[in-house]
Recover the amino acids of this structure.
């Protein structure tokens, strides 16, 4: 536990920013203008609520791997705590992304699950991090758990990254803007949508980090009560 | 003793121990033969090359998991203490990985031979397929060796090896099935070499990561 990390997680300006961004996202996301596109139609608004989940998840996984590395070099249990909780929040965002995506896919593609690189990537990611938690729960000694969990976390992150890089080479995606589908790639993501999309990414990511830091504080309080 | 020599000595020690107690190797062989035969009884014949290939790699995956899961389990406390006090952890993990590559490579070769006899082989380019088998063995053994090392520190629960290892093997299996699938279809080397390069890259990433991460597992 360091004073620096405390001061960032306790300072309030970025939490306000997260709330403002998310309120803006919800208002503009549902009411703002979107281009009329074939097939996706109004469901293009899912960009603000689905793609952003994925981005927040990747950010949190990155936090996980950074804190795993930090734990291995410092041996401070606080770093491991942040790593574990960021993986947990990443799982929450992965589930949210999966659910929003499946609802959307059911309307746009006609089926909630198809053989698509992004879907396979998410499924693999969730399995990997589920295994991470199973491993952690199998170890009772907390220092050992931290060390072994960190090692697996780093290895898993690299393999997950390779998987996400590799699979798009395997088959074309059905996702909008990929494989020649109409959609929101950089050529036709219009400026109105960008005005909502970027704040949405920032808002959801900050929100995820905020929830993660709350979980960390909760765990620390639990520990204090437990030790008292 | 320099590093290379330490690794080599450890591999020889491992092989000697294995040879002393041949039961482990024999049981591995019987395990793969039984899985191939079970597949034969359930499928009778595999006409589709894609299924042929996928079934072979699934058998290899289970055989590999079974073979490597015990890498760190079978050693006595005394031997582990000896390793720990005498040798750098990097030498331990590299020797285990290389030994497992040998083991799985040989096992894979035998599996491939028998599997091709029982199910008629659709493979058009056998050299490429065997290269794929080698690359696949390297990837499977190096990933599973590190996972077995992780599990050996976590109560030695053998089921954990599969739970932790399978999701990590997704990229490797996808690539190896694509590479060997191309070999089945008789693609020329020029068409298939990019997959070979990617597999080599992935294998080196796995081995480098094991080399870097294992010391943290090893210190108690």
């Amino acid at each position: 536990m360091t004073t620096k990390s405390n001061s960032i997680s306790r300072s309030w300006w970025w939490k306000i920013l997260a709330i403002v961004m998310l309120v803006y996202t919800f208002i503009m996301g549902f009411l703002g203008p979107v281009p009329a596109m074939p097939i996706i139609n109004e469901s293009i608004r899912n960009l603000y609520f689905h793609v952003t989940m994925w981005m927040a998840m990747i950010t949190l996984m990155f936090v996980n791997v950074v804190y795993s590395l930090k734990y291995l070099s410092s041996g401070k249990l606080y770093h491991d705590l942040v790593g574990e909780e960021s993986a947990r929040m990443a799982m929450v965002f992965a589930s949210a992304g999966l659910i929003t995506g499946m609802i959307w896919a059911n309307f746009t593609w006609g089926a909630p699950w198809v053989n698509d690189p992004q879907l396979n990537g998410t499924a693999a990611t969730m399995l990997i991090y589920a295994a991470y938690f199973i491993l952690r729960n199998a170890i009772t000694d907390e220092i050992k758990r931290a060390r072994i969990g960190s090692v697996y976390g780093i290895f898993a992150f690299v393999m997950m990254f390779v998987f996400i890089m590799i699979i798009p080479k395997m088959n074309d995606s059905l996702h909008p803007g990929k494989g020649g589908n109409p959609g929101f790639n950089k050529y036709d993501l219009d400026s109105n949508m960008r005005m909502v999309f970027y704040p949405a990414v920032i808002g959801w990511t900050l929100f995820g980090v905020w929830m993660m830091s709350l979980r960390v504080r909760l765990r620390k309080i639990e520990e204090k009560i437990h030790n008292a | 003793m320099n590093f290379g020599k330490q690794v080599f000595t450890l591999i020889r020690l491992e092989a000697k121990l294995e040879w002393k107690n041949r039961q482990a190797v024999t049981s591995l062989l019987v395990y793969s033969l039984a899985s191939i035969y079970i597949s034969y009884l359930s499928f009778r014949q595999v006409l589709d090359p894609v299924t042929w290939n996928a079934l072979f790699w699934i058998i290899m995956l289970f055989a590999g998991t079974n073979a490597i899961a015990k890498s760190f389990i079978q050693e006595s406390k005394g031997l582990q203490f000896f390793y720990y006090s005498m040798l750098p952890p990097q030498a331990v993990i590299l020797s285990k990985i290389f030994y497992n590559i040998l083991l799985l490579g040989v096992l894979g070769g035998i599996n491939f031979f028998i599997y091709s006899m029982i199910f008629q082989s659709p493979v058009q380019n056998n050299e490429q397929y065997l290269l794929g088998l080698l690359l696949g063995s390297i990837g499977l053994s190096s990933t599973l060796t590190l996972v077995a090392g992780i599990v050996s520190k976590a109560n030695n629960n053998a089921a954990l090896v599969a739970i932790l290892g399978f999701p990590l093997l997704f990229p490797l299996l996808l690539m190896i099935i694509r590479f060997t699938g191309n070999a089945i279809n008789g693609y020329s080397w020029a068409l298939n070499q990019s997959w070979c390069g990617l597999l080599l890259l992935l294998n080196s990433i796995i081995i480098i990561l094991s080399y870097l991460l294992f010391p943290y597992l090893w210190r108690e």
